[in-house]
Write a structure and sequence with these properties.
There is one protein chain. This protein is an alpha/beta fold and 220 residues long. It has a single domain (5-214), classed as 3-Layer(aba) Sandwich (Rossmann fold). It has 10 helices and 8 strands. It has helices spanning 19-22, 49-57, 72-82, 104-115, 119-133, 135-146, 150-153, 174-184, 198-201, 203-214, and strands spanning 5-8, 29-31, 34-35, 38-39, 64-69, 87-93, 161-165, 187-190. The chain has a 6-stranded parallel sheet, with helices on both faces. Strands 3-4 form a two-stranded parallel ribbon. Helix 2 (49-57) packs across helix 3. It is globular and about 45 Å long. The mean pLDDT is 91.
Amino acid sequence: MSAPVVLVPGLGLGPESYAKTVEHLTTPYLVVTLPGYGEPAGAREDLHPRALAVALADKIRERSVLVGHSASCQIVVETAIIDPELVHALVLVAPTGDARMSSWVDRTVRWLGSAVPEAPRLIRVVTPQYARTTLSSIARAAEAARHHDLAAVITQVRVPVVIVRGKHDLISPAEWVERLAELSHGEARTLESGSHMPVLTNGPEVAALIQRAAAVPESD
């Protein structure tokens, strides 16, 4: 028996970003887009992770595994805090939210270092998703996420947490993932390949971790 899965795309991305992961899921799943995360944002919409967590909670119909990727990890963690009854477990894929890495220069250097190895096969996939979300919405959501300290809030999570990253990811480095796992009493995993887009480049491995998190003991 498995809990259903709710997947939230990363910043600027849409449902297509999870294509190689959901191919390998056997439990029911739903991809939920949000302003800045697959949908264009209205001029007055609040794009801070806590506000988007409220919007996400409104779209969840039953206790589920919440999966975030990159900046949307900050949203699913906030959802688990504000409405814990909706959350069976969290799977955080390549999470951002390290307040110590807040400068745009540092983030840009790390993004370029992470993106270059994957760019040839991913640029044609992600470009239409960014265009649909719109660059202005992405920029606003990125600025809101930049001021959210994930380490400061993840200690409030009371459900199992699995955190996974690609081996070559400079945006979500091993030390950061291990720190989050320690703070949440969760599990940290570094895949043997991939960078910041393991939901596309390492679909079978990510799906296996989600499936394991979704397992419900018979007694439940």
